[in-house]
Amino acid sequence: MASVQGQCDSAFDGVREVFEASFADGQNLGAAVAVYADGRPVVDLWGGVADRRTGRAWSWDTPCVVFSCTKAVTSAAALLLVDRGYVALDDAVAEWWPEFGVNGKGGVTVEHLLTHQAGLPAFDGHVTVAQAADPVAMADRLARQRPEWEPGSGFGYHALTFGWLIGELVRRHTGAPVGEFVHTEFGSDLWIGAPAGTIARAARISVPKRGEPKSALIDIATQTRIGAAYAEPGSLIFRATANPAASYNDPALLGGGWPAAGMVTTARALARFYRDLVHGVTLSHRTLDDAIRVRVRGRDRVLLTDSAYGLGFMRPAQSFELPDVAAGAFGHPGAGGAVGLADPDSGLAIAFVPNLKRDYFAGDRRAHRLVQAAYAAIA
């Protein structure tokens, strides 16, 4: 059994027990979990193996790529500009990005970008990992594209394009890439474009071996529908998630600053980010309250699940499965099983960061159990 280390308030021993059990039953390889309650750190635990190839242990400062948990941080960067009056949600994107207003996109607003309504969930041509490291070139590609649907008429998860769209908003209003802006405004341990030293000590993503236990949350019928669509190269879900195609252990990706899926961080730093959101440190309470209000809800054109989006943040739904007690939470999951969230009502901020990548589109029971245990501690 993996040795779990760190600190845990005795009131949250249930979180420790769930975390320890996840190693004992093979659900985790290496992972970390952190919880803040009313701004106070109450859980900071880690354990297991950071690199299956070498046996390197997960340590207190091991960072890991968190996939789409990145979107919440990138969204907060844009919302900070809204908070400061640099841009308004109903502004047409073409007002500050004239090249974007072609091929039926003249009416796309900032809100459309943040709510996955822009109709640009996938690139219309092959993109390499090297090209993805140039945010200006990536934005230019999207500016020239024709949308998949009339913007504002529906929504679908912009799995990778979201980052370069929102990143261009940040770059055009601050002159800095979104990763640099995040580093300056939100803290040094949220790396969107990680330096070489950070990449070298990061946990290595692994996939379950044959026969290892599964942890899917959603029903078999939905899993089957998603699997069939993902097996079709022309489907939106395939095109949105597989281009650019890369290994999330590739230093070129981790250092390339992918602003929708490439952030490297620790559970401690991600939970602290959410703590600062709900305590008005990062954004005004007014801006955050507006950002977590559900703007669109229903069947996602890309994910093929029921989804609910605020401004960049997900709310509980099939695509962001949370325990019933967490109905007030907002945040974002990541494809590898990571999650970051906060709940203004309960005062909790929670992050779980694993390196064993499970059930890409089917939810993840590991995070679900940890969140449930955290809420039970304050019941």
Automatic annotation (TrEMBL):
Enzyme Commission number(s) of this protein: 3.1.1.103
Transmembrane segments: none
GO molecular function: hydrolase activity
Keywords: Hydrolase
Domain Beta-lactamase-related: 16-371
EC category: hydrolase
Pfam families per UniProt: Beta-lactamase (PF00144)
Lineage top rank: taxon: Bacteria
Alphabetized InterPro entries for the sequence: Beta-lactam-related, Beta-lactam/transpept-like, Beta-lactamase/esterase
UniProt-recorded name of the protein: Serine hydrolase domain-containing protein
Originating species: Rhodococcus parequi
